[in-house]
Amino acid sequence: MPLSSSLDRVLARISARYQDDPYQLLQMLRAVQASYSHVPQAAMQFFARHLGVPLSQVQGVVEFYAFLHETPRGRYDIRFSDNITDQMLGARTLMQRLCERLGERLGVSAGVPRGDGAVTVDLTSCTGMSDQGPAALVNGLAVTRLDAARIDEMADLVDAGIALEAWPRDWFAVRDNIRHPGPMLELAMAPGAALKAAVARGAASTLTELAHSGLRGRGGAGYLTAHKWRFCLEAPGVQRFVVCNADEGEPGTFKDRVLLTRFADELFEGMALAGFVVGARQGFLYLRGEYEYMLPHLESVLERRREEGLLGSNVIGAGFDFDIAIHLGAGAYICGEESALIESLEGKRGQARVRPPFPAVRGYADKPTVVNNVQTFIQAAQISAMGAPWFSSLGTEKSRGTVLLSISGDVPRRGIFEYPFGVTISEVLADCGATAVQAIQIGGPSGHLIGASEFGRRIAFEDMPTTGSLMVFDWSRDVIAVVQNFARFFQHESCGFCTPCRVGTTVLRQLVDKVADGHASAADLVEIEGAGRVTRALSHCGLGQTAPNPVLDALTRFRPAFEARLTSANGDPGFDLDAELSEARQMRGKEMQHGG
Ligand code: SF4
After folding, report:
1. Å from CA of 534 to ligand 1 middle
2. 134 phi and psi, to 5 degrees?
3. Phi/psi-derived region of residue 140, left when phi > 0, alpha when psi is between -120 and 50, beta in every other case
4. pLDDT digits over 375-424, tens only?
5. For the stretch 374-386, what's the b/e string if a residue is b when 16 or more beta carbons lie within 10 angstroms of its beta carbon?
6. Which residue from 219, 361, 458, 536 has the fewest beta carbons nearer than 10 Å?
7. Is the CB of 445 inside a 6 Å radius of any atom of ligand 1?
8. Which residues pair with 471 in a beta bridge?
9. How does DSSP classify residue 4?
10. 502 within ligand 1 shell (Cβ under 6 A)
11. Counting atoms of ligand 1 from 1, which one is nearest the CA of 495?
12. How many CB atoms are closer than 10 A to CB 438?
């Protein structure tokens, strides 16, 4: 199909901006999506030809990411965050209200552009604003603290065709909500302090210092950071890379959002520190698409650091080069897994690689790559500046330092809380003012759902590890509805690459829906356990391996809530499949007796 000359010019400009680099394909497609509210077939054909990659690969990328579309979205693309905490704050009711307001003349239904092409209203996975929801993205930009008045005004702005820049600025304000700062959040570190200390100490001694600190990766697995950096350093090869995983997609987590806002200098310093230690010259910050609004701020910090000699050539005059580029994600939870993130950085579908080899040995562009998350790099910088004892004196023997918690749900004080590892869940709940707590989900949907009998447990790698999310549910909440939200989330986010996860997450979702609808029998609970075990054991990557956690936890710890649904919750005789079957069996038995 011949390209229209205007599209042709735009595509050529986009491709040139990204230096015709196939690894930048995702960024190019994002730019097309932003300009045309979709990625036209002609654009895919252009990039396939121009970059020398198969058309099927380009198409596969467009299909993979939730923020890319083959057909046009509305000029205003509004997506409500569908995390359980947003739901609890009324997100779905507000979305319904917006659809009704916008659909007074032309009908609006979720996910379908209005007849005049002006607007699409839809749901999306957690946008990282659980402390200030209900939240939404409007053309990729975060809007927080939605309420009925804002929804009505939003409908008027859309109908009047008012440009987003003229919408009320306070709608786009994102608060940090730091409620309980600790040593990490309170440390004021001068830009360059960590790098100067590292250069004075030398790369090898800096790595030793990091090892003595006991710092473990804060992204989930808890791998010793110094070990990871050493593997990368010792892996064969000349070129190495440093990657920061800022794809904070675990529902209910928002600590990286705050760190990126408040501690961008420390983060970039930690990445440069890793570059100095392992001998890398290039770093990448992989920023989740939902945090696009931060891009100008982060780019300005990078630019200032270049001007100050803290990035670029001959960093701090110490004779090493290191710079950082920012790469935006496009709505795929799986890209939080480090090998999937690297695939995405290379402009491909974010599919988890077979490991080993691990990224430290073969990562970005098949070269040794350090991948750590935002908090880990910041803490590495702080350790370099302050020394290992400053850090290792905090926490427990196996979990040194502090943990950052993103707390949301049924609590009066939602936000960021920092504690030395080893703090009990009860202490945390008291600090955030939680009362009448029925359950908490710790570590996001891939973590664990626990009840009050376990609130004495300690948050630490050796007891209750967490990636930082802590969602609180009081006794007014329906545990089944919570689990249903998580089951839907995992089914939606499964990349479909391997059968156990693709089928397992679908089956689990269907079974949980069946329980929620009051149509399940005891046999379905057995089936949930079986499907959960198989999905956990046979899935290819962490997503599938952890997807059954919430439902299996709930079945173990909140079984009465499930059993109560096997009959109707409103007191009417419910649909009890086992009872129905047993009645049928008895009748059949009688028939057989009569017949015999
Ligand atoms: S486990 Fe799920 S997310 Fe991971 S590769 Fe398999 S299908 Fe994809």
Report:
1. 13
2. -65, 145
3. left
4. 999 999 999 999 999 999 999 999 999 999 999 999 999 999 999 999 99
5. bbbbbbbbbbbbb
6. 458
7. no
8. 408, 441
9. P
10. yes
11. 8
12. 18
Distance 356 CA to ligand 1 centre (A): 16
d(CA 353, CA 365): 13
C-alpha to C-alpha distance for 229 and 240, rounded to whole angstroms: 11
Mean pLDDT, the chain, whole residue set: 93
Distant-in-sequence, close-in-space partners of 410: CB < 8 Å, separation ≥ 6: 88, 434, 437, 472, 473, 474, 476, 477
38-85, pLDDT tens digit by residue? 999 999 999 999 999 999 999 999 999 999 999 999 999 999 999 999
List the alpha helices (DSSP H) in 361-433.
Answer: 374-386, 388-392, 425-431
Checking DSSP bridges between strand 241-246 and strand 136-138, what pairing results, if any?
A: unpaired
Block residue for tokens 């040194």 = 400
Handedness of CA 259, 260, 266, 270 (dihedral sign): positive
Residue 420's nearest CA partner among 400, 441, 442 is: 400
Write 88-94 long-range contacts (CB < 8 A, 24+). Answer: 88/409, 88/410, 88/477, 89/133, 89/134, 90/134, 91/133, 91/134, 91/135, 91/136, 91/146, 92/123, 94/134, 94/146, 94/147, 94/148, 94/151
Average pLDDT for 127-152: 97
φ and ψ of 214, to 5 deg: 80, 15
Q: Model confidence over 92-124: pLDDT tens digits?
A: 999 999 999 998 777 788 889 999 999 999 999
Supply angle C-alpha 7, 9, 15, rounded to 5: 100
Q: Cα(478) to centroid of ligand 1, in Å? A: 29
